[in-house]
């Protein structure tokens, strides 16, 4: 009994510590005080200001972040998925070596990645802007996609592909209709992981964004916070992003549960 | 095997070339782009789109504004000086403007070919003569006129922001307020070596001269003496300031870069070495939560600071840059920028006066040095004006303030002194 209370209590404490900052920001997004922590009465003024068209730079940075994240995640998923299939088909020693090389960008600190990409782009004469940022994001996202897809490939029955070929499929058809469905869940989780990593990234974006006025959410927050305190619109934006992610997770969980429930009822019905 | 590898290598090179081409295509041709480099939160953002329309009306040409942010003057300067970035317009602080002018990094805004805008849209004349006077004191080689190379944007003073409940105005009338044991650990000092060095030098010099009998106890340095001190970063002066700062260090609760305002509004600190723009902001914020703050420029003297527009050397669209500066000097835009940022514009016309005066204020100030009419004469009634005196200081305040100059190659000695003081 005591053990149960303690373990539950510990869990609650952890959850409280994890969510307290977000909840505090959400609560203080409903007041118009500029200084965080002052409460000057309930008001949705900040939300109005965010959407009124006055916060031009903040909304542009949100747009940029989402655009870059979508494109980078899509490219990384494609690249990573195909790479994983290739790695899977290598001989043992080659596979081990490529997996080792794949791990390096993941372990490399962000700043090192950012600075070295910056030097590379300058050396090759690329003007820095959207293209360089997307390339940089693809660079650090792809290894994670490979890592997500490989386990699914390992779990797959290795003979399925050959069986498909024997039954008359072309290699491309076999890839598309037999292998892809098996690894689809790995690619989806790789896509979501890349999307999150891209939105979250600061150091790499900071060094590769150049000087065309391109800002993402993280670099815009950095610029804003340097000149005397974070403007209150960020509290509203953080709350909105948090709610959006929460909603997404609820939907995914609901669908997974429903899926499992249907499967169970189907089995019982037999 | 070898043939395959060669094909692969060729494919990789072709891919790289494609990417290079792709990344350089930007959408807008460079002649129709205006690249501005400015601090964050330092403009009313809606004005950027409005400028594009105004430019089209005035010249018939299209322009697309690219607005890039920077956070440190020195980073901005090195991007232009070493990186040779082609920004068309940049907004540095006073001492950096001086450095750019002396390192030949600025293009003339006005020269023999382009003297001024046509009268109907010439707003640059709206800049207050007081500010133009400050600019003319910038050191420039070859006898060139600094007012031809830069136009002011925002300005202010440096002083003490204090909590009115715990601190009385007479206590912050002098920089010795910083050494008052009553405020021990309730004081935040800006972590900005230049903004602390200059006032401290003025205070230390005043104190030392009094000790040596060169100044009477109630006498203060004259404005010329203060202006001379602003050039002074000699070893003796640095050592003097270091001594005074080391005595100050035990009283300081923290060296802050931006959280001083918050500390003051939450009453965690009672005095804060602060700039006038941030002080006015903090006062308003604190009022909302029932905390009373006010600002004082000590009697010994202090700094006046400003930011101004400069066209850097590698600019490619000088025409649009000039028009943008002009647009910023239009009185209604100046007022909008003031409202959006909380700082004080250099524009001293009647429209700005009418927008900013507040006849319900108790304090009366002499602002005849700042607000002038079209003929350059002080506007009627500005010698006894009711206006926010933190934003628009009385004549007696600006007469004891001077502008900091670029310390040039003495900067390293100053930085060394600063890191020694902070590490105590």
Descriptive overview:
The complex is a heterodimer of chains A (270) and B (424). Chain A has 270 residues and is mainly alpha-helical. Chain A is built from 11 helices and no strands. The model of chain A has no long low-confidence stretch (mean pLDDT 90). Chain B has 424 residues and is α/β, with parallel strands linked by helices. Chain B has helices spanning 2-24, 46-59, 73-81, 94-102, 129-136, 146-149, 193-211, 223-229, 235-248, 260-265, 276-288, 318-328, 331-341, 350-356, 395-398, 411-422, and strands spanning 33-39, 64-70, 89-90, 106-107, 150-163, 187-190, 252-256, 271-275, 293-296, 302-312, 344-345, 401-403. In chain B, strands 4, 5, 6, 7, 8, 9, 10, 11 and 12 form a 9-stranded mixed β-sheet that branches. In chain B, helix 2 links the parallel strand 1 (33-39) and strand 2. In chain B, helix 7 crosses helix 9 (235-248), helix 9 runs parallel beside helix 16 and helix 13 packs parallel to helix 14. The longest helix of chain B is centred in the first third of the chain and has 23 residues, at 2-24. The model of chain B has no long low-confidence stretch (mean pLDDT 89). The interface between A and B is large, with 35 and 38 residues.
Q: Short summary of the structure?
A:
The complex is a heterodimer of chains A (270) and B (424). Chain A is 80% helix and 0% strand.
Ordered list of secondary-structure elements with their pairings:
The complex is a heterodimer of chains A (270) and B (424).
Chain A: H1 2-28, H2 45-51, H3 56-88, H4 92-107, H5 110-124, H6 130-155, H7 159-166, H8 171-200, H9 203-208, H10 217-226, H11 233-269
Helix pairs in contact in A: 1-11, 2-11, 3-6, 3-8, 4-6, 6-8, 7-8
Chain B: H1 2-24, E1 33-39, H2 46-59, E2 64-70, H3 73-81, E3 89-90, H4 94-102, E4 106-107, H5 129-136, H6 146-149, E5 150-163, E6 187-190, H7 193-211, H8 223-229, H9 235-248, E7 252-256, H10 260-265, E8 271-275, H11 276-288, E9 293-296, E10 302-312, H12 318-328, H13 331-341, E11 344-345, H14 350-356, H15 395-398, E12 401-403, H16 411-422
Parallel strand pairs in B: 1-2, 1-3, 6-7, 6-8, 10-12
Antiparallel strand pairs in B: 4-10, 5-8, 5-9, 5-10, 5-11
Helix pairs in contact in B: 7-9, 9-16, 13-14
């Amino acid at each position: 009994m005591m053990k149960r209370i303690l373990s539950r209590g510990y869990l609650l404490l952890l959850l409280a510590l994890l969510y307290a900052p977000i909840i505090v920001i959400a609560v203080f997004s409903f007041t118009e005080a500029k200084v965080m922590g002052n409460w000057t009465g309930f008001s949705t003024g900040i939300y109005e200001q965010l959407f009124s068209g006055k916060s031009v730079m903040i909304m542009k940075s949100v747009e940029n972040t989402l655009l870059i994240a979508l494109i980078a995640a899509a490219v990384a998923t494609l690249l990573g998925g195909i790479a994983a299939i290739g790695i899977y088909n290598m001989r043992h020693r080659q596979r081990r070596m490529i997996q080792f090389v794949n791990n390096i960008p993941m372990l490399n600190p962000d700043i090192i990645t950012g600075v070295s990409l910056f030097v590379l782009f300058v050396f090759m004469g690329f003007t820095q802007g959207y293209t360089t940022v997307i390339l940089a994001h693809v660079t650090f996202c792809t290894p994670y996609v490979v890592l997500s897809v490989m386990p699914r490939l390992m779990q797959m029955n290795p003979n399925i592909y050959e069986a498909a070929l024997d039954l008359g499929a072309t290699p491309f058809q076999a890839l598309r209709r037999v292998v892809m469905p098996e690894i689809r869940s790995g690619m989806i989780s790789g896509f979501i992981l890349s999307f999150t990593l891209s939105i979250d990234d600061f150091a790499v974006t900071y060094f590769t964004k150049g000087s065309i006025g391109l800002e993402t959410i993280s670099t815009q927050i950095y610029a804003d916070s340097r000149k005397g305190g974070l403007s209150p619109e960020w509290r509203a934006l953080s709350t909105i992003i948090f709610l959006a992610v929460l909603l997404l997770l609820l939907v995914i969980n609901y669908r997974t549960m429903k899926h499992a429930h249907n499967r169970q009822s189907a089995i019982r019905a037999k | 095997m070898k043939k395959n590898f060669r094909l692969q290598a060729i494919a990789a090179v072709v891919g790289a070339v494609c990417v290079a081409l792709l990344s350089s295509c930007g959408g807008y041709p460079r002649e129709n782009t205006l690249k501005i480099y400015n601090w964050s939160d330092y403009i009313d953002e809606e004005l950027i789109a409005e400028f594009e329309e105004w430019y089209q009306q005035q010249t018939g040409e299209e322009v697309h504004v690219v607005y890039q942010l920077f956070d440190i003057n020195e980073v901005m300067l090195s991007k232009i000086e070493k990186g040779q970035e082609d920004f068309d317009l940049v907004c540095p602080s006073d001492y950096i403007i001086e450095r750019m002018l002396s390192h030949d990094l600025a293009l003339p805004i006005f020269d023999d070919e382009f003297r001024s805008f046509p009268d109907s849209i010439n707003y640059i004349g709206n800049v207050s003569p007081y500010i133009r006077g400050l600019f003319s004191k910038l050191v420039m080689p070859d006898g060139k006129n600094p007012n031809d190379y830069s136009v002011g944007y925002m300005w202010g003073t440096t002083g003490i922001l204090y909590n009115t409940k715990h601190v009385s105005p007479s206590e912050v009338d002098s920089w010795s307020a910083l050494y008052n044991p009553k405020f021990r650990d309730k004081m935040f000092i800006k972590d900005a070596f230049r903004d602390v060095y200059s006032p401290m030098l003025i205070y230390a010099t005043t104190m030392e001269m009094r000790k040596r009998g060169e100044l009477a106890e109630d006498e203060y340095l004259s404005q010329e003496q203060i202006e001379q001190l602003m050039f002074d970063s000699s070893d003796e002066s640095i050592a003097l300031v270091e001594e005074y700062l080391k005595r100050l260090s035990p009283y300081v609760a923290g060296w802050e870069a931006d959280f001083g305002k918050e500390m003051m509004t939450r009453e965690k600190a009672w005095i804060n070495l602060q700039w006038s723009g941030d002080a006015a902001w903090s006062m308003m914020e604190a009022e909302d939560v029932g905390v009373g703050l006010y600002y004082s420029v000590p009697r010994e003297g202090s700094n006046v600071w400003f930011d101004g527009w400069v066209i850097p050397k590698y600019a490619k669209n000088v025409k649009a840059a000039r028009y943008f500066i002009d647009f910023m000097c239009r009185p209604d835009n100046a007022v909008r920028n003031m409202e959006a940022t909380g700082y004080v514009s250099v524009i001293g016309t009647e429209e700005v006066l009418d927008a900013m005066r507040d006849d319900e204020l108790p304090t009366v100030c002499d602002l005849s040095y700042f607000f002038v009419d079209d003929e350059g004469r002080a506007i009627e009634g500005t010698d006894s004006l009711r206006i926010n005196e933190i934003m628009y200081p009385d004549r007696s305040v600006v007469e004891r303030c001077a502008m900091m100059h670029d310390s040039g190659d003495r900067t390293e000695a100053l930085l060394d002194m600063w890191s020694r003081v902070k590490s105590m």
